[in-house]
């Protein structure tokens, strides 16, 4: 499928979360990594908001939240690590499914 449109000389493709919810970003990455490995390119991700959003919300600017923040961030990283292997099982919650798109966002 993907090999029909992308030359074999491309060593890898890095996907962005593009304002997807954390859950959608992990789920899509997971499905991409289930593509039969008849291609040699590496499929990976470069997620900003989809890695940081729940972590920053949990922190809330308070030093006393550091332990909670570490647990939240570890969980998000674990999800995406599993998704890189095609082994992620979605656990939809209202929090993880929150759309992170910011209308008219300027970089």
Question: Can you walk me through this structure?
Answer:
This protein has 107 residues and is mainly α. The chain has one domain. 39% of the residues lie in helices and 9% in strands. It is built from 3 helices and 2 strands. Helix 1 (22-32) packs parallel to helix 3 (66-85). The radius of gyration is 16 Å and the shape is elongated. The model has no long low-confidence stretch (mean pLDDT 82).
* Largest sheet: number of strands, sense, barrel closure: 2 strands, parallel
The strands making up the biggest β-sheet line up spatially as 1-2
The separation of the N and C termini measures 33 Å
Quote the beta fraction: 5-15%
Identify low-pLDDT runs: none
The overall pLDDT, averaged over residues, is 82
């Amino acid at each position: 499928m993907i090999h029909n449109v992308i030359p074999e000389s491309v060593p890898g493709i890095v996907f962005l979360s593009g304002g997807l919810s954390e859950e959608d970003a992990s789920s899509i990455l997971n499905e991409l990594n289930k593509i039969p490995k008849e291609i040699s390119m590496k499929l990976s991700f470069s997620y900003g908001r989809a890695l940081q959003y729940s972590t920053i919300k949990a922190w809330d600017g308070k030093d006393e939240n550091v332990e909670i923040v570490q647990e939240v961030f570890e969980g998000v990283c674990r999800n995406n690590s599993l998704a890189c292997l095609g082994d992620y099982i979605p656990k939809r919650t209202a929090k993880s499914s929150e759309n992170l798109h910011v209308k008219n966002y300027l970089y």
